[in-house]
Amino acid sequence: MRPNRRAILQTALGLGAAVACRGALALQPTPAQTRGPFYPVTRPLEADADLTRLAGHAERAEGRVVHLMGRVLDAAGRPVAGAKVELWQANARGRYAHPRDVNAAPLDPNFQGFGSQSTDADGQFRFKTVKPAAYPVNPMNPRAVRTPHIHFAFESGAATLVTQLYFPGERHNDSDGIYGGLTDAEQRAVTGSILPATPDLEPDSILLRWDVVLAGG
User: What's the farthest any 2 CA atoms get from each other in the chain?
Assistant: First the structure.
């Protein structure tokens, strides 16, 4: 189920107001971050915008549903139509469907783990996924974990961006080595905003908005 028209309009109006307040000032590009070691070796057969359902599976993916929506903009605040958007992430237990992931957490046979789409005429993209869990990064140090995040890649002509999206208020954000290496402004740029969930969405689901600015987009 996608966010309803009211939520989409609220997002568009909010973004328009923000751009208008900036006037003619150029927007700062969203900071690039590491692709990480778990970009899919082989693209899954399904790579649509709904990562919570697989064809032929009666059950949806485990975890808290996230409705993710946003826009891709250029440095002048104009929407970038037709930009290619890819995302990949760990499941609700913190495990990637990747041969290099040695995390002992179980795989989820109902989770797609990777999605791809192109932005519409207004630069908008939307995905339905689940909230990824934090996961260990060093077996010798159980305190070393990656905070919940989603990997993204954007491409429009010569403009490309690989980055990561974070959830606000996560207890591991401050101790995450990658997130912690960003400036305050960069952290704000890669952290989504949680909006009030609309009644038509799944109970306890998250409605998350995140806008991306491409350098030279």
Answer: 51
Identify any residues that bridge with 150 across adjacent strands, giving them in sequence order: 165
Q: How close are the terminal C-alpha atoms of the chain, in Å?
A: 30
Which residues are known to be catalytic? 96, 135, 146, 149, 151
pLDDT at residue 145 is higher than 70? yes
Give the contacts of 45 (CB within 8 A, at least 6 positions apart): none
Instruction: With cut-offs at 50, 70 and 90, classify the pLDDT of residue 21.
Output: very low
Assign domain 5-213 to its CATH architecture.
Sandwich (2.60)
pLDDT for the residue 6: 52
Q: Are 210 and 70 in contact (CB under 8 A)?
A: yes
Nearest one of 11, 48, 28, 31 to 164, comparing CA atoms: 31
Nearest-angstrom CA–CA distance, 189 and 70: 12
pLDDT higher than 70, residue 217: no
Query: Comparing C-alpha atoms, which of 32, 17, 37, 26 is closest to residue 165?
Result: 32
